[in-house]
Predict the 3D structure of the following.
Amino acid sequence: MTHPIPAPRRPLDSRSNNPYRTPAVPGPACPSCTHRTCRSCRAQALPRLGGHRAEFALEHHRAAQVQARHPRQIVWFGESTQSFWVASSTGLYEARNWDDLLAHLWAHARVGHPRL
């Protein structure tokens, strides 16, 4: 049984009209997705606004709002880790997303105020 070696494929796909195939990304990052790596790549090309990258403006704004409501804790958004951070008297806490941050702050606030 001798099978011929198939010819190598062309590097460009000639089936560009395939509706089931996702289009190629024009650069190193998707233009509007929320993947961590895509957001990091997009942030490198955007200007800094007050020391923060424009890509993460919403997260910085949310952290500032939470900081205003919890004056005894320091809350900020870390661009390199893409997570929220809380510094309190009990230590440093990393919240991976917005819900995790709110749950941590709620639990921390409930410790000092037991239910009646």
DSSP finds three helices and five strands in the chain.
